[in-house]
## 1
Amino acid sequence: MKNIILTGIKPTGTPHIGNYFGAIKPALELVNNENNICYFFIADYHALTTVETREELKAHTLEVASTWLACGLDPNKVVFYKQSDIKETFELSTILTNVTPKGLMNRAHAYKAKCEQNSISQTDIDDGVNMGLYNYPILMAADILLFNTNLVPVGLDQKQHIEIARDICTYFNNKFKKCLTMPDGLITENVATILGLDGRKMSKSYNNIIPLFCTENELKKIIMRIVTDSSLPSEPKGTDNTIFNLYKLFATKEQTEAFKQKLARGIGWGEAKNDLFELINSYIKPMREKYNYYMTNPQIVNNILQDGANKARQISKETIKRVRTAIGVE
Ligand code: ADP
Ligand code: TRP
């Protein structure tokens, strides 16, 4: 039996090094296993809960798609598409709404967090909450259940969403004919949280990211901004710092060991940052060239996504037909 693997990334910002090591690279490693059939998609309708303008959504969609392709996604091996091209998603989402208890949505963390924030600032409990945010987990369940998915590789932050998708699957299968496949999360708990320029988790929301793709000059400038302590160049340095943690991600075992020793002997942070820049730049350079190629040829990217959507629809149409029969709509 083959594993059906599916994951989505929201086009809400420029992909960064945390996204690469936390989500993109682990997902691409699954593609090389012959037992896996992979569906990777751009969750553009999920991004609508936060993205403000059409320009932003278009730009981020192209950026995210180009990033996947530049990082090695082979569209002949992965069904790669945009969520918005698969209309069956939205039909299934509407159907699933009717087997989902409202209480389950009240407990979903993104909505709950927003309500808690409102409560602290003593504004109306639902201030700034749109129904996209409220229904977010149902749409995500539809993404997953539409493709008979067995495994969903995601970061720890998505664990609750997978549990909700499993609950919704059970509610549907119990109420109607058992025709949806129960998915499991493949939670990458062991992937370390990549730290950003200020030592906190690297995240778009903290404005502390190292973009995966920017020019060499920009990359250098950003790396020079990493916050370090005030130790003198001659003082020995350990491994509990952002520079070393980032270095380790890109380096071979031997390179890591050599860098560790160099730090222990005592070097200035400026030199250490320079070493880090050289290493990251050499790792990223070939991917950056591909990225720039796709970014300047959006039509090629669109064609790839359209081909992917055509393949994906072969499955989504079958599922929706089964579901419609199950609920009595034929
Ligand atoms: P951001 O926090 O920048 O908004 P997203 O929430 O869009 O990033 O994350 C997309 C994917 O990248 C998720 O699977 C998430 O687990 C992963 N990811 C994001 N930031 C990091 C990080 N600092 N370290 C490891 N993985 C990360
Ligand atoms: N909610 C996910 C995130 O914020 C993105 C996503 C949407 C997704 N649909 C999905 C992930 C289906 C896995 C499967 O990162």
## 2
Amino acid sequence: MIDAKKYTLDNEKALTNNKANNKVYIETYGCQMNVSDSEVVMAILIKEDYQLTELMEEADLLLINTCSIRENAEVRIRGRLGEFRRVKRIRKHAIVGVIGCMAERLKEKLVQQEKLVDIVVGPDAYRDLPNLIAQAEGGQKAINVLLSREETYAEIAPVRYASNGISAFVSIMRGCDNMCSYCVVPFTRGRERSREPKTILSEVQGLLDDGYKEVTLLGQNVDKYKWEKENEETVSFAQLLKLVAKQAPQMRIRFSTSYPQDMTDEVLKIMASHKNICKHIHFPAQSGNSNVLERMKRGYTREWYMSRVESIRRHMPDCAITCDIITGFCDETEEEHQDTLSLMKWAEYDFSYMFKYSERPNTFAHRNMKDNVPEEVKSRRLTEIIDLQHQISREVRQKDIGKIFEILVEGTSKKSEEQMHGRTSQNQTVIFPKGSSKKGDFIKIKITKATQTTIMGEIV
Ligand code: 5AD
Ligand code: SF4
């Protein structure tokens, strides 16, 4: 079993180490999994006596943890590399590393296209970073983009360098075997694999001991979590959720992301029966039309998705449901688009992430379908979807006025020292007058006002 506490102490010692040429600067793009991976990367580097800096101008190693999910994510990252170039002109010895999904997707092409890049490291190769850095210091370009069927960084205690000290991510699995036709993730993050439960529980214990109040269990498809080993009891996601909830009854437990095809009623029952498991499910539909869903290879129909939402509502009437939607997927007709709008109205999502379809090289859709919805049609449909979601969110929030929620206080509001912000179990941010509350407290708040962007409340 790992000793999370010991790792933290080791890391603290390393943070005060002052060896020359060891300052690392890291930027992270993309999903929560990338945020979590950057914490693993920092743990690996700190063991090598690296020290974190927030100033790229003083860094000896500049890392960018990248995302490939849509083309514009990659465009933005190339823009940031321009900034790195500016630093490298002054600090010629500095090593520039591209890590994460874009590293995995582009491999050696990255060092050919972006001359300033010295190292390229895929999501399963972070343990090799010290060797790759040494190679780059010797003047060679260094690349490791090997994907693994086993790597989960199970025993590495992440260094939560950008954390608020209250909430933390805990990775429970890696990779994805779903192969949705539009998605690059199976190519950049490889095969699905689950992390050993005891290392997850030990990480959660370490967080609890360090005063954290909330953990989010992360996986591309948490419903497929399964720990199987000879002579050991098999652990499903529902069982893991229960183990974590029991291990840390004083903490809030969240998880992301659920997959409609795989989410079981067992998970819903565990959620409903544990007060500390937050009542929020991120439940990406992607589209409200069964034909589009089939072209997307999502493995479920509109009706199936709706039946799962009904099941969530049945088990937990107060559960927030949020969604991801892609508009303008290959061959999407106006009627199919209307089905997405009608699903959104029916489901009354609290919140949605909404995207225009972006064709990704080598995916099934790229190889077999045409990205044939014109850009202006995609834009118009996206606007309709966004406008509708805003209207739904407003209506859902209005219903909360006068209700009392338990809030986990996360800190002082950006706008005023006299106000605090925190989140409900449903993941809704609330602003309220400070009173005697402090960061990390659980307090009861009555919602008094809800506007488009903020929800206000008062301590009761
Ligand atoms: N184009 C647009 N959006 C995408 N997503 C994944 N792949 C693409 C793509 N090629 C969206 C999905 C997913 C979220 C993380 O990103 O909605 O749930
Ligand atoms: Fe995360 Fe997917 Fe982006 Fe990779 S491509 S960083 S898995 S969102």
